[in-house]
Amino acid sequence: MLETEPRIVNDYVQPGKVRLVYRHLLQLGERSELLAEAAECAADQGRFWEMRQALYRRYNQLYTETRAGVEAAAVEVGVDPEALGACLDARTHEAAVRADFEAAVAEGIRSRPVFVIGDRRIIGAQPFSTFQELLDRASGS
Questions:
Q1: Which CATH fold topology does 4-136 show?
Q2: What are the domain boundaries of the chain?
Q3: 98: pLDDT confidence band, cut at 50, 70 and 90?
Q4: Contact 88, 37 (CB under 8 A)
Q5: How far is 137 from 120, CA to CA, in rounded Å?
Q6: pTM, rounded to two decimals
Q7: Is the pLDDT of residue 113 over 90?
Q8: More confident residue, 28 or 93
Q9: What mean pLDDT is predicted for residues 56-72?
Q10: What's the CA gap between 100 and 23, in Å, rounded?
Q11: Residue 126 neighbours by CB under 8 Å, 6+ apart
C-alpha cells in the first residue's frame, strides 16, 4: 500500500473526486493505540497522513522502540515533538481512537487494509489497477 495509496490520494482524493476515510484498527493493543493517537496528535499540526506514512515506514522498528520510534517519525515529518509528547501524555485522542476502532469493527472490518468503494470491498494490499476502475466509476470519471 505504500506505493498504491499515494497514487489514490494524488489521482482521486486531492482533486476531490473521492473521499478517503481512515479508521484506526487497534489489532495490537496498547502499541496500536499509541500509534493511532500519535497520528491523531500529528493531525493537530496538519500532518496526519505524513505521520501515518512515517509510522508505516518504521513499522518493524516500532515493535521494540515504540515511543522513541514515534518521536523520530514526528521529527522526520515536521511535527513538533514537544507538542506531540504532551498530546500523547494527556491521551488527548484516546476516546476518538477507540470510537474509530469500534466503528470499524461495527462495519465488519477485522484486519487491514480494507477499502470500501461503492458496494465493493477490497481486502489486502492490492495494485493500483485493482482500485482504478472502481474509483473511476465511483467518481464519475
A1: Glutaredoxin (3.40.30)
A2: 4-136
A3: very high
A4: yes
A5: 12
A6: 0.82
A7: no
A8: 93
A9: 85
A10: 6
A11: 4
pLDDT band at 41 (very low <50, low <70, confident <90, very high): very high
Measuring CA to CA, which residue among 84, 106, 85 is closest to residue 25? 106
Which residues have CB under 8 Å from 31's CB, separation 6+?
Answer: 62, 63, 66
Query: How large is the C-alpha radius of gyration of the chain?
Result: 16
Angle between helix 30-43 and helix 94-106 axes, rounded to 10 deg: 110
134 burial class (0-12, 13-18, 19+ CB within 10 angstroms)? middle
Which residue's entry shows cell 476516546?
95
Q: Chain centroid to CA 41: how far?
A: 12
Q: What is the pLDDT of residues 5-27, one digit of tens each?
A: 889 888 998 899 988 888 888 87
Q: Do 44 and 54 contact (CB within 8 A), yes or no?
A: no
